[in-house]
Amino acid sequence: MNRVISLTEIDDFTSTAKDLSSLLQRPDNADIAGEFPATVSRYGGDVVESKAHLEAARNLYKIGSREQFIVFSGEHAVGMCLISNALDTPPEGINPSAPNISGFISNPYRARGLGRLSIEERMKVLKKNFDNRAWTFVRDGNFPSEHLVTSVGFQKTDREIEGWEGHHLYLFGDAES
């Protein structure tokens, strides 16, 4: 059964850490390292360190501020997603209470509906805990991600954000200040 589980609902991260570490080291997931280098650094190496980082992330979990989830295909952790407005600096013109959403699904689990499941679950959380607004970046040419975010109501902008060249900013709800 495919599902998205909050970090607070996972008691033991051992198998999750093993799964993520193994998947994030695969060459066909190099694009994840390009988009989320800190995530891959935390969860894509040594399993003991990955487990410790998952436990630390669970301790940072705060409803309506920073909510993180693991995407499972059956019993295997295959992706992660985060909703957070606990950022040092949102892009200029973005309401500071509007969270950023981000996430990934690892190969070989892509194109199986897990990205759709992940974003639909995050949209429920946005509505319930984040005033139904958010923003995200999508790399230009990442057509599956562009389709996912626009299909749930994000609007593509033409705004260029320093440090995110080659990406477009997408807004949902009243995300602008």
Account of the 3D structure:
The protein has a single domain (2-172), classed as Gcn5-related N-acetyltransferase (GNAT) (Aminopeptidase, 3-Layer(aba) Sandwich). It is an alpha+beta fold. The mean pLDDT is 93. The strands form two sheets. Strands 1-2-3-4 form a four-stranded antiparallel sheet, with helices on both faces. It has six helices and seven strands; from the N terminus they run βααααβββαβαββ. Strand 2 (66-73) and strand 3 form a beta hairpin.
Give the key terms.
177 residues; alpha+beta; Aminopeptidase; four-stranded antiparallel β-sheet; three-stranded antiparallel β-sheet; 6 helices; 7 strands; 36% helix; globular
Helix percent band: 25-40%
For the record, the CATH class is Alpha Beta
The number of distinct β-strands equals 7
The largest sheet, given as strand count, sense and whether it forms a barrel, is: 4 strands, antiparallel
Q: What is the topology?
A:
Elements: E1 2-6, H1 14-24, H2 30-35, H3 37-43, H4 47-60, E2 66-73, E3 76-84, E4 100-105, H5 114-129, E5 134-139, H6 143-151, E6 155-156, E7 167-172
Antiparallel strand pairs: 1-2, 2-3, 3-4, 5-7, 6-7
Helix pairs in contact: 1-4
